[in-house]
Amino acid sequence: MSVELRIHAFFPLLAGVCLVLSANDGILRGLGLFLVVVLAVLVREVVRLLTAAFLGLRLRAVLVLPIGGLFAYANPESQEGSNQGAAQFALAFAGPLANAATGVALAVLLLGAGGGGIRLFDPPWITSAYLLRSMVWMQLSLAVLHLLPAYPLDAGRLLRGSFARKHGLAPVGRAAAGVGQVLALTIMIAGMLLQSPWLIIAGFFIMIGAQIEDQGVFFQSVVDTVHMREVMLTDFATLSPSDTLTDALVRCVHSLQEDFPVVRGPHLVGIVSRQRIVDALRNDGNGYIQSVMSRAFQVAGPEDTLGTTIRRLSAGHGLSLIPVTESGRVIGIVSVQNLMSSMTLLAEQRRIEREEAGD
Q: pTM of this prediction?
């Protein structure tokens, strides 16, 4: 299974900061300093990805920040598994151990090869003037940074997972994000007092990661309280496997749906998209729906949560629709096309109900 790699937009900003910090040493050394940071992040994330694969956790995407990556899991089982027992500790310590081991190995190599010419312990430890020394200390600094107990740092992930099992993910996630933001602000202030640009940079990106987590927890708390019965479309069109493609195209003209459930009697037997019908007519001429419909599809129950259904949509087979079934009969559909509109109207409905209950 492929994993989508997303590079955060602040990486170019970090490159610019490295160039500014290296103004006296030249552009090439500034870019070298940026690559030193990228190498440290790359080491930890490669090891974390290998650890996740070894543990059998399925990832959908990785958002890479200048302090490390945030994992998005492909299914609820992997999400829950990442917060359980040995897997939780393995993921929490894989990154810091990888950076620490790499830093120590580089230090031994440089001291052995350069003898007294490599002043490894002379400040400043991370600077464009001494890139080899910076490679060692950037690896070690990233390892130490992730031992601080605040999300999205690795030790913060470990604490969040431990408390979440007792108190629930949403409240603990919000608390962890808040602690992360406080810690980030503290590190930035310390950086200003100590005139350390790297502490300021670290604090800034910890704050960005904590805000991303806060938004994610809020979204998760919303989608896990909304059920399919509340947002599904109950006025929808269906097709029969014995319908011709030309007849189905006529139905498409008079419908706003992009995808259609295909039913034989009361039973769902497939799903077909408007575009699939058009493409089949153009390429092969008229035929029957059963020859072009997809028989691999997901279904949801009326009491399934929106979060569960969104994960099914993202893991689907190129379709943007999930039929909602009850006792084998299609009673509604949920699609990406209508989901945002339905959520907006549901939020307004709930607001009105709260106001009426308060009167």
A: 0.62
